[in-house]
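User: Sequence for Protein-S-isoprenylcysteine O-methyltransferase Ste14 below. Tokens please.
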Amino acid sequence: MTLLVAAKIVWAAGCIGWYVIRLPFERKVKRERVIDARDRLRELVLLSCSTLGLGIVPLLWATSPAFDGANYPYSPVQFALGTLTFLFSLWLFRRTHRDLGKNWSVTLEIKDAHKLITGGVYRHVRHPMYSAFFLWALAQLILIPNWIAGPAGLIGFGILYAFRIGREEKMMLDTFGDEYRAYSARTARLIPGVY
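Assistant: Structure tokens for Protein-S-isoprenylcysteine O-methyltransferase Ste14:
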């Protein structure tokens, strides 16, 4: 097996792992009553940008010659670093879901019995699920030796993040007020102690 085929397998396994982690949580939260849902159409567009960058473009790279002209030389170090980064992103993704429980949602929503989660990985950053997605995008950049498919995840998810984070923080302030202000003052958004 070539290193490139191995990279495609790791990328595909990571995507499957992502889905397997999320599926039970999607089933659980469907029963929860939503009391505040914002910007449904905007959310759909942003989720589509993320899916394009983290899913569709790399899938085309992995299964067709569509982006072959943008491939570049690949090393075992890149493969190892990309694989480890993807594994860490999956761990963090699983942990954020576990810590959030029924408070989790794909879009901007507040549930009937929504609680502000400040423990677990949320003790260190306010948005560790976004951190996990950025790690996935970074893993894709390292793992996929292609100038189009590699950075597509950072671009796609970066668009979602840039156009959602302000609205999400406003929703949390509207819902939790001073409790969220105090939490924001002691935690970073994505990277502990940095940002």
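The beta strands are 34-37, 109-111.
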